[in-house]
Amino acid sequence: MKIPLFNKILVANRGEIALRIIRACKELKIPTVAIHSEADATTLYVKKADEACLVGPGPLAGYLNIYKIIELAKQKGADAIHPGYGFLSENPDFARACEENGMTFIGPGAETIRRMGNKIQARQTMKKVGIPIVPGILNHLNSVDEAINAAKEIGFPVILKASNGGGGRGLRICLNEEDLARHYPIIQMESQTAFGSSEIYLEKYFNSPKHIEIQILADRFGNVIHLGERDCSIQRRHQKLIEIAPSLFLTNAVRKKMGEAAVAAAKASEYVTAGTVEFLVDSELNFYFLEMNTRIQVEHTVTEEITGVDIVKEMIRLAAGMPLTYQQKEIRITGFAMECRINAEDPLRNFMATPGKITAYYSPGGFGVRIDGNVYSGYTVPSYYDSLLAKLTVKGLTWEETVDRMYRSLDEYVIRGVKTTIPLYKKIMLDPAFREGKFDTNYIQNNFDRLVYGHEEDPRDLVIAISAAIVAHSRSNSMAIRS
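-> structure tokens emitted (483 positions)
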């Protein structure tokens, strides 16, 4: 009988990522403890865990309470904590508290998180080892005048960033000196409020780059491999919506160089377990280090589908001190994969969140289709958390097959009671520009009106609309006759 890697793992997160971790633990025969707020008491991840405990008070505070979580882990006999993504996943104080209390933090060490979480220190580290970085300054700004002088040297447009920012927050694009002077105090205040530090810095802003990231795995023996790239260019306000692997844009030569750069970045930061090195790529295929995510990412599913590597299970093994299961030469990329983030948002109302009760739910299936979710018919989408309901991931041998399979899957997907991003994604799958790989980080911004209002309707959608209109007209006539 195999000895488990850990006696028990407490999952310090919620939603679909908590369920993903619990499923991986079950396959590794490791018992799990789920924490939950009162709002999450009846969710799937809570039901699937071996044990569960209320972390309260309130909907959010408990998920961010380092010492309460560690206390619960001790009470339940857990010897490891998996932070998932978001919440405390990139908090060096949490990683250190786990270490100080004799628990394994399933992620990199506290010092690595601190160094890579500070964007200025990360840039300095990458520059030292010769990895191209986005043109900009290597220290935090001390005044508006200093920012203006730096911007003049780099050339407008520039982007102001919180040194400890992440997740698309703490950013302001500045087209000229007036923008810079106006945004400087605002982003300082936002940085202090959201990230506990008012340190900000400045980089060159690329108008229409590709956002490419490389998944890495590293063990405690100095071995690092990469699992290829993901194209995360389809985003809105720096929030990713659709992820694709591998990129349609990169050449094999550039792909190889970026993979080597990501491995070098991980070694330079003394990285352990799973992480992601993010790059911007310009139209000439020049790539620049953007940041390093010291956690599992939402979009890890597409990499798993094209490589066959279970990243979450590997992450747990590596945290337990095991060597890498794979060598770089064993990693093979097969076909294409795409993930759509199914969010409870209304694209027609500026992507406003749409909490409420799901009155009907039917998820797609079939060959090459994967769902990572935590919702069901009757589930109430709370207003306190991220709007992500589920991740729909499909795989195909060719890009065309992958896009067609995603459209078919979106067409099958039924979520009623709340507005979702599904209709927008269906439009994107039919868009010739998208299908030809002609997209960058401004794709949604530049094409939204055309996609939503000007795209030729799918005939099946038209039939449904006509049928609904006929039914509504019949009911109206019936009511008029009765009255």
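The radius of gyration is 23 Å.
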